Amino acid sequence: MTTTTETGTDTPVAPKRNYSVLFALTLLGLLLLLCTGLAIANPIFLSELNITNLLRQGSMIAILAIGQTFVIITAGIDLSVGAIAGFSTVIIAMLLQAGVAPWLAIVITLLVGLGIGIFHGFGITRMGLPPFIITLATMTSLRGIGLLMTRGSTISINNTGFTDFSTQSFLRIPSLFWMVILVAVPAYIFLDHTRWGRYLFAVGSNPESARLSGVRVGRIVFMAYALSAFFAAFVGVLLATRIGIGNATQADGWELQAIASTVIGGTSLFGAIGSIHGPLIGAFILAVINNGANLLNVNSFWQRIITGFLIIVIVFFDQMRRRGR
Amino acid sequence: MMTAPTATATAQATAQADQPILELRGLQKNYGQVQALKPASLAFRRGEIHAIVGENGAGKSTLIKLLTGVIRRSGGEVLLDGAPVALASPEEAIAHGINAVHQEVVLCRHLTVAANVFLGDEQTRYGLLRKRQMTRDAQRILDEMGFNIPAGAMLGSLTIGQQQLVATARATVRGTRFMIFDEPTAYLTRQEAAELFTLIRRFKDEGMTIVYISHRMEEVFELADRVSVLRDGTLVGTRDIDETTETELVSLMINRTLDQIYHKEQIPRGAVLLETRGLTGKGFREISLSVHAGEIVGLYGLIGAGRSEFALSLFGRHPATAGEICWKGQPVRIRDVNAAIGLGIALAPESRRDQGLNLNLPIGLNLNLPVYDRITFGPLVAAREEASRADRQIADLAIKTPGRRTLASSMSGGNQQKIVIGKWLNHGAEVFIFDEPTVGVDVGTKAEIYRLFAALLKRGAGIILISSYLPEVYELADTLHVFRGGRMAGTHRYRDAADEVVLAEAIGVE
Q1: Which residues of A touch B368 (CB under 8 A)?
Q2: Which residue has the higher pLDDT, A131 or B262?
Q3: Does domain B20-254 have CATH number 3.40.50.300?
Q4: Which alpha helices (H) appear in A151-298, and where do they start and end?
Q5: A198: which chain B residues are within 8 Å (Cβ-Cβ)?
């Protein structure tokens, strides 16, 4: 390089990275504040039983939210995750009922989820359908397919080894929460430390620029939806261990809770902004609100209202700070 | 403003005429520790055309944004007709009669021209839109201005130049007294630019004050009454246009003389790198040309002449439908972008915002986007290599930024263009296609880019340079191809035809 301009050297080097850390700490602070408040209001909150219960409740939404994050970072959306989770309980229940070994049943269920995600990728990149539409279509039809397969009834799972999993704990931490860690750590490495993660952000920010920089945009979109659906199928397996049945109507509305967790966690619905820890904290904030409302005997309808209010407040402050910096 | 009660009406009127319409007193803007605009004081006279020139990052955009209420000032004050105004929002600026036409049109492509003209100011009756009335009124306004644009057409169906004219028309219906043009001719054809100049002069005659921002000196001297120069956020001077010269202005903007800008070196021409034979695709037909190592091939033509389409096709974005491409003598098929990159072709595309950059991502990520497949350590990105590569481009290209984590969107046009170029220097290539590399780029950065071309050529690369700005391709290209209506209308060696001839070929007059 022979450029010899010396004017640029006096610019201060002051990278601004602390914003996302600050936001994460604020969320964490909010979570702790909620917990402290509830602990004071009702001592039962801190009981081991309640905490365990809370972690189990939050875990499944948290995993869905992580999958959802990959999709939302590409400026897409996956409305089907709740339906996939419900559908997966049916698949695994039927497989177990047919005497398939649990490990094999789990693998098959996960592959079915992966297939659904690949179908989404196909619809978006090859058929040119908007993500909202194709996942909305899957969301309604999967419930229908699941109900057809079970003829509208519920399949119970008799494999006690399988259903016991959800009630077990390891190091006094519920197994379901371990599953969150199992998913979140690789997800974090994937998003922040591999080139695929970089590409997700690039596609979400400007797909045309990404394509002209040599990123295979179609593959990245496939990948995002495949991951989201795969995680949703995994949640379906966990749900099946927890409720011990296969029923296509389960996990109703979970897609919205997952999206809410993601957004509360600082992910931008316009793409290219997001993290793994954000949705995690977001999911547990929602879980604490739910749990707290139950403990304080607040009408459960209020939970929904509070959740909606929280989304507005957090996203509003987040936007304001992004603009103000 | 205190006026003695005994003052006569005439005295008042004179006072008003002498009083500047808009006065800046120590106006400044800081972003954190960076001073984008150092305290500036300047008075705009009523009914003048006041040009503002300066390199990219000199603070021109900051000044416009402050005046149009897009951003809020950090200090100082603005006086409108002698009274301080806050200019806290775009709405407030418009209410004061301050309006701007931006370089890149920010209107709604899916609405009609008339709907855009009256956007936010619609005519209604019983709460319903009076569409026919608005179309008629808009047509009348456009006709009066001498624009040949149908008011009922969708904005998206117009050329960028025509859209710019619509944006101008739109600003006039809102009682504008103070109009800012931010590089309005960047995307205009000569014809359209001429129409715009006529219009600007008419506005002036009607008493409107005009601030005209441009990188093109000839426009400044053609239009302006006075000119102010910004350098590194400092207002370094204001001159009457009759009392200054191009040389003086350029030396105020940078410490460099004009003939150093077009930097061309004698570089021996090497082997043929890329050759097309009868290449045909969407927007261009039967293009045959070759690019040698050490050679700049210029593609000149008006916007829409098929040059960018040809470039995108070479780069595999819209593969050609007929004809063939040879790479170093071997016929190749370029089916997608990755195939082109794999051969050794790089493209700095026409639109930085739409095609070139991931604006809301860090500079470092933008710079490394084409090379992530090389800087991995197992499945992971090699963080140190990623950082050092980004820092190297920032240092080599003198990109003015606090650091590689800064978002690309916060950079000025010239620095953004450097990021687009740095991305491909980081990756490396043998044929570089630069599509309008200096649109919206200041003189200083232009010179840097041209020197960079020479450096690339010396290393054995070939360059395809696409430009709508004739002096650029005329002074730099070893071989100059002229495009018109998707076809090649002429080919010249370096300076073997007069520039009028080239221009005539491009616009199709004999």
Answers
A1: 198
A2: A131
A3: yes
A4: 160-164, 175-193, 195-205, 207-212, 217-243, 254-264, 277-295
A5: 365, 368-369, 372, 381
Evaluate whether B221 touches B210 at the Cβ level (below 8 Å). Answer: no
Distance CA A241, CA A54 (A): 17
The percent of chain A in helix, strand and coil, each rounded to the nearest 5, is 75, 5, 20
Predicted TM-score of the model (pTM): 0.75
Contacts of A210 in chain B (CB under 8 A): 358, 369
pLDDT in tens, A104-158: 999 999 999 999 999 999 999 999 999 999 999 999 999 999 999 998 888 888 8
The pLDDT tens digits of the residues spanning B310-325 come to 999 999 999 999 999 9
- pLDDT tens column, B11-36: 454 555 568 888 989 998 887 666 78
* Subunit contact A14:B368, Cβ cutoff 8 A: no
- Kindly indicate the confidence band of residue B466, based on its pLDDT and cuts at 50, 70 and 90: very high
- Taking an 8 Å cut-off on Cβ atoms, the answer to whether B361 and A5 are in contact is no
Interatomic CA distance for residues B442 and B57, integer angstroms: 9
In chain A, the residue whose alpha carbon lies closest to the alpha carbon of B381 is: A194
Record: contact A212-B355, CB cut-off 8 A: yes
**Complex-level ipTM:** 0.82
For A15, the closest of B337, B341, B402 (CB atoms) is B402
CB neighbourhood size of A199 (10 A): 24
Quote the mean pLDDT of chain B.
84
Verify whether the Cβ–Cβ distance A7 to B405 is below 8 Å. Answer: no
Task: Give the domain B272-507 fold.
Answer: Rossmann fold (3.40.50)
Question: Could you write out the DSSP letters of every residue in A121-136?
Answer: HHHHHTS---HHHHHH
State both tokens at A179.
Answer: 């599953």
What is the C-alpha separation between A211 and A241, in angstroms, rounded?
A: 42
Could you name the CATH architecture of A44-324? Orthogonal Bundle (1.10)
Note whether B402 contacts A13, CB cutoff 8 Å: yes
In terms of pLDDT, which residue wins out, A324 or A320? A320
Which residues of chain B have a CB within 8 Å of the CB of A216? 338
Judge contact between B250 and B75, C-beta under 8 A.
Answer: no
Across the interface, whether the CB atoms of B403 and A7 are under 8 A apart is answered no
Share of residues in chain B with pLDDT > 70 (%) = 91
Q: Do B361 and A208 touch (CB under 8 A)?
A: no
Residues of A with Cβ-Cβ distance to B427 under 8 angstroms? 214
Provide the residue ranges of all domains of chain B, joining segments of one domain with +: 20-254, 272-507
